[in-house]
Design goal:
- With about 160 residues, this protein is α+β, with helices and mostly antiparallel strands.
- The chain has helices at about 20-25, 30-40, 105-120, 125, and strands at about 1-5, 10-20, 55-60, 70-75, 90, 95-100, 130-140, 150-155.
- The protein is built from 4 helices and 8 strands, in the order E-E-H-H-E-E-E-E-H-H-E-E.
- An 8-stranded antiparallel β-sheet has the order 1-6-8-7-3-4-2-5.
- Pfam families: Cass2 (PF14526).
- This is Transcriptional regulator YdeE.
């Protein structure tokens, strides 16, 4: 397992509360957030952005992967000053992260598969115990084609 130490950073974007049960049964909010961000070209309206790679942040965990969490889709930023109305800023804390790379394939298939793999990993396989403070996914050039996407999931560790 690839373990990395990261400095904290901010992400600004669109967010909602959800849980994995709702996402699995079709009553989730993640698809709606993606649709809204892309349809309305909201990423272009985020000030102080640090690049073009979309970041999906999972934070404000109620408990573990079975409880509610906040899902935010946006861009990393250099400052959270002057954030437009209807945008949310979340801080990804510094710390140790296990980096899990998805297989390549349709994004709607590889992202859930990667999370199922993470949920089934023991702390020994993952490289530590999950912190449930923040996890995030990076959508870079490898996910430009949604039918042949590959992403990296950064899982926060204690």
């Amino acid at each position: 397992m690839n373990i990395q130490q990261h400095a904290g950073f901010y992400v600004v974007g669109v967010a909602a509360r959800t849980d994995n049960a709702a996402e699995k049964n079709g009553n989730g909010k993640i698809g709606e957030i993606w649709h809204r961000l892309l349809r309305d070209n909201l990423a272009a309206k985020i000030p102080n952005k640090l690049g073009i790679d979309l970041i999906a942040v999972y934070t404000d965990y109620e408990s573990d992967h079975k409880g509610q969490y906040t899902y935010l889709l946006g861009l990393p930023v250099s400052s959270i000053q002057n954030i437009p109305k209807n945008f949310v800023a979340k801080h990804v804390p510094d710390g140790r992260y296990a980096v899990v790379t998805s297989n390549r394939g349709p994004v709607t298939k590889v992202v859930p598969e990667t999370w199922h793999r993470i949920w089934s990993m023991s702390p020994g396989e993952l490289g530590g115990t999950r912190s449930f403070r923040a996890d995030y996914e990076i959508y870079d050039q490898r996910s430009a084609d949604p039918e042949k996407a590959q992403i990296e999931v950064y899982v926060g560790l204690r």
